[in-house]
Amino acid sequence: MNAVPQGGDDAELRRRLDEVDALRRRVLNVIPHALRTPITTLRGLSAAMATASEDEIRSVIAPALNRLATQSEHLLDDMLIAAGYTTALPTAPPEATPVAAVARAVWSELGGGELHVEGDDSIEVMAPGGALFKVMVHLLDNAVKYGEPPYIVRIGREAASVVIEICTGGSVPAAELPMLGEPFFRAEAAVMRSAGLGVGLTVSRCLVEQAGGTLSISAPDHGGLVVRLVMTAADAHRAAS
Predict the structure, then answer these.
(1) Do residues 106 and 133 lie in contact, with contact meaning Cβ atoms separated by under 8 Å?
(2) Alpha carbon of 139 to those of 46, 81, 159, 161, 228: distances in Å?
(3) Is 220 exposed, middle or buried (0-12, 13-18, 19+ CB in 10 A)?
(4) Which residues are paired to 217 by β-bridges?
(5) What was the pLDDT predicted at 3?
(6) Structure confidence at residue 198 as a pLDDT band (50, 70, 90)
(7) Nearest to 36 by CA among 78, 68, 4
(8) Which uninterrupted H or E stretch holds 151?
(9) Maximum alpha-carbon separation in the chain
(10) Does the model's pTM come out above 0.85?
């Protein structure tokens, strides 16, 4: 029989149990809500197929089912990555990826108003194929949903690294800042404004770290939020190869 932890060991056990309980509550708070919409839509589309014509199935229902399957696949991948399953990370080989072009392409899809991209448009980073696009989707989508204008992407160089800063206006309570990168955590303002899993920053950090970079979050004194990525520059990678 295992001995019951005493003293400091007991306190450490309680701390770990509290962390597990907090994560459990975060998971239960966000995942059912995130899955309800795709599952309800799937049920509706399935029911519609019973009375739909072949043309309606081919032109309307089938494309909708494909979009729903893709959305559900992305949700599952994000949950697995946030939970630490490395098998869900991209497997494509690293490739030179233009930062500014990816940021603008993602922003165009989001339709979030005006985006200010500052820096050299020719700067590229090394990352698995599609990884930077997925990171930008999460970070810029968060900016639109939970931040305020101005929306800024700054791109610069520090020696062999590329520094990318995604900056938004608004305010973040100091007590919530350390929790923003925690999986399945959603700030109070985020819960009130939009549905979500609360894994965007966690998934982004995992993808950036897979590419050999770092992700950090800060709240400047003048307000707003800055997500800072440091990644390997493509030209530095080529020079070292």
Answers:
(1) yes
(2) 33, 16, 25, 20, 10
(3) exposed
(4) 227
(5) 45
(6) low
(7) 68
(8) strand 148-158
(9) 71
(10) no
Residue 51 tokens, joined: 């009375």
Average pLDDT over residues 116-141: 95
> Which residues fall within 8 angstroms of residue 113, CB to CB, at 6 or more apart?
144, 149, 151
Pairwise CA distance, residues 202 & 136, whole Å: 13
Name the DSSP letter for residue 233. Answer: B
Distances in Å between the Cα of 166 and the Cα atoms of 69, 160, 201 are: 30, 20, 12
Confidence of residue 196 (pLDDT cuts 50, 70, 90): low
The two tokens of residue 176 are 């919530």
Separation between Cα atoms, residue 17 and residue 23, nearest integer Å? 10
Query: 3-state DSSP call for residue 150?
Result: strand
In whole angstroms, give the CA distance from residue 241 to residue 237: 6
d(CA 168, CA 224): 5
Where helices occur in the chain by DSSP H, the ranges are 8-49, 54-56, 62-82, 99-110, 131-146, 188-193, 200-210, 234-240
d(CA 152, CA 165) in angstroms, rounded, equals 8
